[in-house]
């Protein structure tokens, strides 16, 4: 029986009407899109902005924490490879958080990097353009993924590169036992099947999966 659009929300990424509720119900109501494989938290369970800010301030992300810094090794290498192909690229870390560790690491790599975060570094001119945009452990916080990826696409230059890193889900049934889904600020969950839709929104003509959850999208606008 087809879904009732009055009951089932549109997919927040591909806008499909075919979403189904994750059952048995997890702690928070969640929906699954069979078309792009996004899993997203129901509107009623989205955290308030105050709750988001409070949760992010609990993060202890420090540049002198060698274990934490090591988690950026893959994305730093991806940025260095992309940066080598163009002179002095402008780099934006989208969702840098209260302690922009990746921005500082990229600066130490000799790169021109800056950070944006809606809570802690909210100044982002929509007329600005960046050659490389990174998004590390951030896309899972997007309450409106499509609209946010569209904004990223707007500030990404022609022939630019977008690099994202997140944890991939293993299907709707995995949500119930997955630690990643227990963070109440994690509201959108992706997998390999979701990446072509992200590429389409970004107007990227190809993307590479460097490792599970780490993807590089290449845009070649004419």
Instruction: Estimate the mean pLDDT confidence.
Output: 93
Structural class: alpha/beta
Distance between the termini: 44 Å
Going by CATH, the architecture would be: 3-Layer(aba) Sandwich
Kindly report the spatial arrangement of strands forming the biggest sheet.
5-4-6-7-10-9
Q: Can you identify the CATH class?
A: Alpha Beta
- Could you estimate the helical fraction of the residues in percent? 10-25%
Number of helices: 6
- Would you report the number of β strands? 10
> Can you tell me the CATH topology?
Rossmann fold
Share in β-strands = 15-25%
Give the CATH superfamily: Vaccinia Virus protein VP39
What is the CA-based Rg, rounded? 17 Å
Number of domains: 1
Uncertain stretches of 5 or more adjacent residues: 1-5
Shape designation = globular
Order of helices and strands: EEEHHHEHEEHEEHEE
Q: Strand count, sense and closure of the main sheet?
A: 6 strands, mixed
Describe the structure.
By secondary structure, the chain is an alpha/beta fold. The protein has one domain (about 20-220): 3-Layer(aba) Sandwich (Rossmann fold). About 25% of the residues lie in helices and about 20% in strands. It contains 6 helices and 10 strands, in the order E-E-E-H-H-H-E-H-E-E-H-E-E-H-E-E. The protein has helices spanning about 50-55, 65-70, 75-85, 100-110, 145-155, 195-200, and strands at about 20, 30, 40, 90-95, 110-115, 130-135, 155-165, 190, 205-210, 215-220. The chain has a 6-stranded mixed β-sheet with strand order 5-4-6-7-10-9, with helices on both faces. A 4-stranded antiparallel β-sheet has the order 1-2-3-8, with no helix packed on it. The longest helix is centred in the middle third of the chain and has 11 residues, at about 75-85. It is globular, with a radius of gyration of 17 Å. Mean pLDDT is about 95; it is low at about 1-5.
């Amino acid at each position: 029986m087809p879904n009732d659009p009055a009951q089932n929300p549109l997919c927040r990424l591909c806008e499909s009407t075919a979403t189904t509720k994750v059952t048995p119900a997890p702690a928070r109501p969640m929906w699954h899109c069979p078309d792009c494989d996004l899993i997203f938290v129901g509107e009623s369970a989205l955290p308030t902005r105050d709750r988001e800010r409070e949760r992010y301030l609990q993060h202890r992300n420090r540049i002198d924490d060698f274990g934490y810094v090591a988690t950026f090794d893959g994305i730093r290498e991806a940025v260095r490879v992309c940066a080598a192909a163009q002179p002095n690229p402008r780099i934006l870390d989208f969702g840098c958080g209260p302690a922009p560790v990746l921005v500082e690491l990229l600066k130490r790599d000799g790169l021109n990097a800056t950070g944006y975060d809606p809570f802690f570094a909210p100044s982002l001119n929509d007329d600005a353009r960046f050659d490389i945009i990174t998004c590390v452990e951030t896309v899972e916080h997007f309450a409106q993924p499509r609209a946010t990826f569209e904004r990223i696409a707007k500030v990404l230059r022609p022939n630019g590169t977008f690099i994202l890193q997140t944890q991939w889900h293993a299907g709707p049934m995995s949500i119930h036992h997955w630690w990643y889904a227990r963070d109440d600020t994690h509201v959108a969950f992706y997998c390999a099947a979701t990446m072509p839709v992200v590429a389409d929104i970004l107007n990227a003509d190809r993307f590479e999966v460097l490792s599970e959850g780490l993807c590089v999208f290449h845009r070649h606008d004419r």
